């Protein structure tokens, strides 16, 4: 299906969704959204003020009680209709994501499928929120537990997966009976705006989901987090911003879910199937142009296979086609903004200055758009910044190791603990190494393991809480215990 871009952009609401309508900002302020492949402005949206943020919270709180009482089957049906509508509009969502974020259209289509699964999954989970019934060990009380919606939520999402990061929060919140204010990332708000309209079209009652896009994140989040009615903040983004939000959440003792940064090790043992390892590396490194919290950030490769792995990986990267993600055949899009491209370039330049060798790539693209060539580096010193910071770009630094213990020590030598990858054909090693890895996610012989049915989340400074899976809905519930005097109690 060919999408007419100007017709599509004309369908995306440009206001703030407060209650039942899309409105201008209270001070009339706006901000622009840019296409990173061309540097052109593609849309101008209302920029929420603190007053607008509170109006959104008012609209949410006004319907919390009624929404929580709605039978789970009805909430489930709304999610299911949302899933079907997103599927019908899949090509529009994919095009929007490519336009505002840069990922190639084929990948954007993949995100629509992945992101939409959260609507289907949580439409199924909505009707399976069971409590427990039992008797105390002493026999004096009957115990009932109920899972209640946690209450009004603030959901803050990053720019890198504009649809999936929103559905991963909005769907379980709807399933659990919570109302919410969604604050999308400034760089990629269009997908969330269109998604919110799609949920209204699917029958979501006004006020349950409010959207406040804007140029200033803290002008929106601070007043909401300082308000006594808010009960929860769910954040996906960088660790430093997550830390600030956790401090702020402490003042009101808010429930928090934090999906933060990563520094994923990609370990290739000497017994790995190298075909699988190269395929896995392409997924773990190149998915989303390397702009993923799960992106392989450090390739730890056994010294006996490092040369072959590096050579073959570099050859695969040389086949990639850089360009505007909307163009046929393009496999690597631009980075999201100039600052992002410059940060990748400076990490590579510093590693090279410290002695690393460039096997392929190593340069920023020229002309309009924020491109960086797919790059493989070898001989990277273990204290290089590129191994210790999130690269967030298509760059693969390779470090060699000799023993399993050394691989584990290197892998765990980071404050992050989100994704990790292991390539080996030895089943005992799979369990030994998984036991030793301090990461919330372990991909074994696979470079992409995200799935709506699986619990996604990190340990250490990568955050707390899980999204997706059976666990995802629990983030939006609180347990109430009801103790009833046992009729046989003395
Ligand atoms: P970011 O932390 O800069 O921004 C994330 C969101 O927080 C945006 O909506 C932004 O506007 C908002 N924000 C920024 N400053 C804020 C403040 N002071 N108060 C309130 N909100 C604020 O992150 P980003 O650059 O958008 O995204 C990239 C980061 O997200 C990377 O670190 C990546 O690893 C992480 N990420 C994590 C996951 C995960 O599931 N763990 C998934 C995707 C991205």
Automatic annotation (TrEMBL):
Residues 22-481 form the Aldehyde dehydrogenase domain. Its EC number is 1.2.1.16. It is an enzyme of class 1 (oxidoreductase). The active site is at 259. One of its GO terms (molecular function) is succinate-semialdehyde dehydrogenase (NAD+) activity. One of its GO terms (biological process) is gamma-aminobutyric acid catabolic process. SUPFAM superfamilies: ALDH-like. Keywords: Oxidoreductase. Coiled coil: none annotated. InterPro entries: Ald_DH/histidinol_DH, Ald_DH_C, Ald_DH_CS_GLU, Ald_DH_N, Aldehyde_DH_dom, Aldehyde_DH_Superfamily. It comes from the Bacteria. Belongs to the aldehyde dehydrogenase family. This is NAD-dependent aldehyde dehydrogenases.
